[in-house]
Amino acid sequence: MKNNLTDSIYKAWRTGILPLVTALLLLTGCEMDSDMNLPLNVDSNKYTLTSDAGSTQVRIYSTGEWSVRLSEDVEWASINRLNGSGNTPVLFKYGANYGVPRTVDIIFTRGGLEQAVRMTQEGEDPILSLEESRIEIFSNPWDLRIGLDNNLREDYKQIRDTIVYSVIPDEDDDETPEPDEEWIENLAVGTDAVTFSTLKNNSPRKRQAAITLTYIDAKEKKHAVTLTVTQATEEACMTFTPYRAKTTRKATTIKAELKHNLGSLLGKVVCTPTYEGASADWIENITLEDKVLSFDVKENDSEGPRSASIAFSLPGTAGELTPAAPFVVEQTYEADYRTLIKGESGQVVINNPEASFEGIVISDKDNANVETTPNTARNATDYTVNAKTAYVQMLDGSYGYRLQFDAADDNTLKRYSQVKISLNGVTLTKEADPERYTLSGLTAANIVSQTPGTASDLIRKEKSIGQLTDEDIYTYVSLREVEFALPDGSYTNVNEGYFGTANHTSCVPRTLCDKDGGAISMLVNNKTPWRRDGSGMPKGKGTLSGVIVHDLQPRYGYTNEGYIGRYSVRVLEKEEIDLAASESSSNRQTLVEWNWNNAEVRTNADGTIAPDRGNGSLWCTDPAAKYLLDNEYNGLTTSAGLNSKNALKFENTYWWDFAENTGYAVALKFSTEGAGANLSLNFTNSQGNAGGTSIYGPVYWQVEYSTDGVNFTVLPESGFCCRPFVYWQGAGGKDLSYCAVPGYADRVFILPDALRNRPEVTLLIKARSTQCIASNTATVDQGDTGTITSDMAANKRSPMRFGTIAVKSNK
C-alpha cells in the first residue's frame, strides 16, 4: 500500500504540482526553498532505439544529488556522467547494432531510492538453429560437436540448456523403463557449436536425451531449439557386402554396399590403404557415402598379382575407434585373351598350359533359361545346348565370356561361384556386330577351381537400355526404369501344343522399353518354370536384372536371319524381374489401344473399328478385306493358355494391290494431343490360320505415318518380318516349317516427335513386298523365296492377326 501511495504522490507531483512550480519559478525568478525536497523520478522507464548509431538524453527529476551507472559493462553503449544533481540530463550514446536486439539499464540512485530506465536497441530477428535435429550414436563413449547457427554475437552466453532423458522400451516391455543415469556430460554452448560427451550405454535398451537450448531476446521473446540424441546398444560398426574384392588387371572402380551405425560421424572416418609388396599407391579416391564404399583401382602394371587392405578408423579426443575390419583388395595379372584375335571376327585355339582366367559365374548349370536351344529337325530341339552353356564375367564385371562345354555333365558351374578356368586347348571365337567372345571345347578338366559364392559377391552394373555396350555382353546387368511394352497375358503367350509339350519352338522374346525410347528383348525358354505360373505380367516400371546376350530368333526376328536387336537379356530367376504390378507406376501412358480382351469388336459410326481405350479408328485399306475375332494365346497358365476370341484378324486379301504395285495396310487414326516424349506404336501380330495352306502372306512389312491422311512417310528402321502361325504338317508333324511361330510377336516402333500434339495422326502397318515363305516345309534359308501372285488360290491367302495395337508416350 505504501508503494502505491508513494507512486501516486510522485505521479501527482510530476504531472501537476511540478509543472506549476516550474512555471512560477520562471515568472518570478525566485529559487525553490531548500526545505522542499523533490523525489527521484524520470520521464520514462523504457526507451526503444533504432539499430543505427546515435544518442539520446534521459532526464532525471530530483532536488538533490544522485548517481547513475549502467546495469552492466557493454561495449556498445555509454553515459556521459556518473553523478549529478537536480534536473541534469544524462546523455546515452550507442553504437550501430548489426545483431539481434539488445538491452541495458540506466540505474539512477538517490539515497534509498532507485530508478531503472531500460534502453532497448532494435536489431535483426534472432536466429538459433542446429545443423542436425536428431542424431544416432553408438554405445561407445564419445565426444560430439554439433554445429550451431546463430546471430547472437556475445549474447550467445545467455543461451540456457536443459536435458531430458528417456529410455526407448522394447516390444515386450509392459511399462517404459525409467532412465538409469544422466549420460550427457560436459555440455557447452559456443559461438558456433554445442559440444558434449556421451557415457557408454551398458543397458540392454536404446536411450534418448533431448537437449534444448533456449534464448530469451531483448523483447522477452523465447527462442528454443532441441537436439534429440539416440544412443544405441551396439558399439560403433561398419559392414561391407562384399567384404573383400578381387578384380582384374584393368583399371576399375570398386563399390561395396555399406551398413553402419555411425550417423553423421561417417564423414569423419579415416580410410588408410596398406599395400603388400613393392607395388603401392594403386588405390585412390576412397569415399564412404551413406550406403556405399567406393574406390578406384589403377591398372596393374606390376607384372604380377598384388593385394592391399583398407583400414578404417574414427578419431576422437580420447582416442580412436576401429568400426570395421580392413577391406581386402586383390588384383590379378591375367592376360586379356580377347586380344589374340586382331580382326573383327575370327577363331583361335589356345595352346598354352599357363593360360587361364578367373571370374564369377553368372549362369547356373541347372537353369533352363541360359541359351536358345536349336532345332535339330522340324519337330526336335537339342536341349543339351542350354545345359552345356555357361556365362562367366570378369571379377570386376568389365566383360564376360560364353562358355560351351563338350557335354552337359562337364558343366558343373554354379551361380555366383568364383572360378579359375584353364584355357589350354580351348577354342576362342570372336563374333562381330556386336563384338562378343565364346570359349568352346571345354571339359570338366578345364575347371581348375570353384569357390561357392553368393549374389553379394557379384559386382553389379546398373544401366539404362541405351547405356549398354558390347562390353556388357555375357555379363550381369540390372536394367533400371524398364517396363514391358505389351504387358498382356504371360511371359510366353504361345500355343502350348507347339511350345510347352512339343519340341517345335523353344524360345519367345518379350519386349522391354524405357522412358528414354530404349527397347530390348527378354528371352524366355519353354522349360523356364515361371514363364506361365498364373501370376501374369507386371504392368509397371522397375529394375530387371539378367545376363546380356546377342541372339537370333528367325521365327520372331525383324530380319530373315532373326535379328531382334543388338542386345537381349536372359533372366534366370523370376525374382530378378523387380517391376511394379500396377500400371499406375508406369512411366508411360496409353493414348489409344485395341486389345479385344472382352471378346467383342466395337465399331464407330463410319464402320471402322473403335478402340478399347481412348478414341480412334482401325481398318484395312483393302476394300475386299473382312475382319473377325480369332484365337489369342494370352492365358496365364500352360493349361489355359488359349483365349478363343481375344484377337482380331483381317482376311480375304492378298495384302497387295497388283494394279498399283503397292501393299495394302492395316490403318489406325487417332489424336496425339497431350502426348509426352517418345511416342511409340506397340503391337503384337502374326499371320495365317495355323494350317498348311493359308500361309502365303507378305513376310516383309513396314510402318508409315501421316498427319493429313493422304501423304505418307516411311518410318525409318520400321521394317519387320511377320511369320505364319505354326501348324502340323505330315505324319507326326515331321514336315513342320522352321519359320512358323507359336504365338504373336511383339513389335515396338518409336515415332517422330513431330507427330506429338496433333489432332489427327494416321499410321499404316503396310506390306512392303510380295515376298512370302517358299512352302509349308521351308527351312530358314528357304523361308522368304516365295512370291504372292494375283492368280494364287484364295485358300492360300494369309490373314493378318493382331492381339494388341497401342499408341503410347511418356507421361
From TrEMBL:
Domain BACON: from-to ranges: 178-232
Protein name as annotated: BACON domain-containing protein
Gene3D superfamilies assigned to the protein according to its UniProt record, in alphabetical order: Immunoglobulins
Domain DUF5689 intervals: 388-548
Taxonomy, superkingdom: Bacteria
InterPro entries, A to Z: BACON, DUF5689, Ig-like_fold
Organism: Alistipes shahii
